[in-house]
Every structure is written in structure tokens, then in C-alpha cells.
């Protein structure tokens, strides 16, 4: 690395990271940014010319390359082309965008919906548009980075409550001024741990302390509830969340983010959110793919049942082998390894035996809690899951995580 800024703080930070990456690469322990040659189906991919079982994907219902969704995307390209004419507010809105937002609103039992170019931009912009200086935001300690960044960008008073700790949340709410705007925000399913927010209790507290409620459903749409409509259905609740945020890039095999809410909230965001006003609209193929995916979820209910069965098999199997899968109840299954190095070594062993898993290490998770962040989908066969668990088990024994 040769910069004319020879020794400022930026250069030093880059050098430290470069050294860490080079050390990992020299020991064949660098697994990030690996290019997938081909997606064969929801369960298998070709990487480095080898067919591998995919256990790191967000395609929870196995909708990647679904014929109906692919066809909708192709038709949209034929009708609208590959890009848009600009931002949504000016020349960029197509009929397919309006259709998608109507589909999302119906799916989420909300009055209206708005879409953004990414899930990250959705959280960043929505939180910082709704909240500002003098307001109070209460955020779960394990919320996604995009939520944290949105809270910081808003300039509001930022209070973090201990993970899923409702007594701590109540204490923070009780100590906030009564006359300020308040927002409680949490992931529905936590992206590193796979557990579920205690929505009934959060709802009770937001009502008691007159706070708005925003839930990020990135990992619960298509996963929670018998129909896969998310956390409200899972807990048997109606339309109770003020701001229902979600992504179009996980269970929904497209890209983008959305918020579903009362019409007044959506109108406000449409005319005040900078990420909506100043970002190009979703490309037609992506909007059409997302639109069709929501319909496929409702039409093919067997996928949710299959996902639930596969999830139970995976969690029970790994636990019976002696692994700590923390408090997960969903398709996100942390396989605790302890040190960063142990997580890298288990990953190497698994990938060498054609099981594509990936490590999550500090600072993304606390030091000492490095893990494989394994996922299962509806596309996996029980026999494939058995084989993947056997490979992970052998890797865990070799590295000394289990006996």
C-alpha cells in the first residue's frame, strides 16, 4: 500500500485491516466475497467449479430462480426495459412500482406501502425522516447495523435496551420525558442469533408509554406465520405495528426495501424521505420479481411448512451433536465456535467437504462468540441436511469445539 498520505489515521486503519486480511489469506482462512459460479437451485451452488450445498443463503423459501418469478422479471424487461427514467417522484414511477406497493400493503395487512432501493437505505432514511433532535429512540442492542445508523443519523436521543429484555426497555421508557416523540424499534428475527422479539410485550409497552413501534421484518417475511406473512401473524395479532419494514432481497428474491403502514405515514415518507426522493427507482425486472414473489408465498404454502420442518431438523441435529445454537427458533442457526480462529477453521473444513457455510466474527459479534451463521431453506432435502450436519460435526470435532 503506497499512499502520499503516509501516516494519517485513515492510512493506519487501512494497513491494520490489510494485514488481517493478508494473514487470513495466507492460511487459507479468508472466505468473504467468494464468487458463486452458478446457482443450481435453492439448495446447491457451484463455487470454484465445485458443487456445494448452500447453507449461507437468505433464500428461506427457496424462491431463487422460481419459474413464475423469473417469467415476471423477463416480461417486465420486455415492457419497460432494464432501468428507470429517474427517481420515483419525477419520471421514475412505473405501473409495476405501484402494483408492487399495493401487493406489499395487502400482504402486510396495511393501508399503504412504499419501496426503496435497498433494505439498508430503507432503515437509514425512514428512521431519520420520522425522528429528529429532541425525540427519543429505543433500540434493541442486537438490532441490525442499518437501524443503528438510522438512529444515529436522526440526531434523536438514542437509548439501547438489553437484547429482548422487556424490563430494561420499560425502565428506559419510564425515564424518558413524557411529552417527547418516542420510537421503539427492533428486528423481528435477529440476523445473527435467529431468535424472535417478544412482540406482544413490546406492543404493550409502546401503548403504555405512547411510543411509535417499528419492526424490521427482513428475516421474518416468508418465515414466520402459517401463511408466511410475518411476526404479527406468528403471534396471532392483527395490524398492530405502526411501521412494518422489510427487505426484498432475502425470502423475496429481488432487491430493495419497503415500509407498510397507515396511509398518512406513507404519504409523509413519500414527500420527506431523502432516500426515496433522491434515489433511482427500482429496476422494472426487480420490482416485477418482488411483486410475483409475494403472490407465490401465498400460493405455495407448503414451502413454509417445509422450511419449519427443515429448521427443526437442523437445530435439533446440531444440538444433539453437542453444538451451542444459542436461542434460535428460526432458519438462522448460529453454530457457536468461540474464537474467531475456530470459526474460520470450522468453515474451512466444511467448505473443503462441499458444505458452503460462512463465519461471523468480531466485531460483527462480540469477541468469544464467533460462529458459523448457518441457514436452511425450504429447498433442502432432509438427507442433504443430514449430510451437512455430519460434515459440520466432523469439522467441530477436528477443531475441538465438540467431543
Walk me through the structure.
With 403 residues, the chain is an alpha/beta fold. The protein folds into two domains: 26-61 and 301-399, Aspartate Aminotransferase, domain 1; 68-299, Aspartate Aminotransferase, domain 2. 44% of the residues lie in helices and 16% in strands. It is built from 15 helices and 14 strands. The protein has helices at 9-26, 67-80, 88-92, 95-107, 119-130, 145-154, 166-175, 199-208, 231-234, 263-272, 274-277, 284-299, 302-320, 340-352, 382-399, and strands spanning 36-39, 44-47, 50-54, 112-116, 136-140, 157-161, 182-187, 212-216, 243-247, 257-261, 332-338, 355-356, 359-360, 370-375. A seven-stranded mixed sheet has the order 4-10-9-8-7-5-6, sandwiched between helices. A four-stranded mixed sheet has the order 1-2-3-12. A three-stranded antiparallel sheet has the order 11-14-13, covered by helices on one side. Strand 7, helix 8 (199-208) and strand 8 form a beta-alpha-beta unit. Helix 14 crosses helix 15 (382-399). The longest helix has 19 residues, at 302-320. The two termini are 43 Å apart. The mean pLDDT is 96.
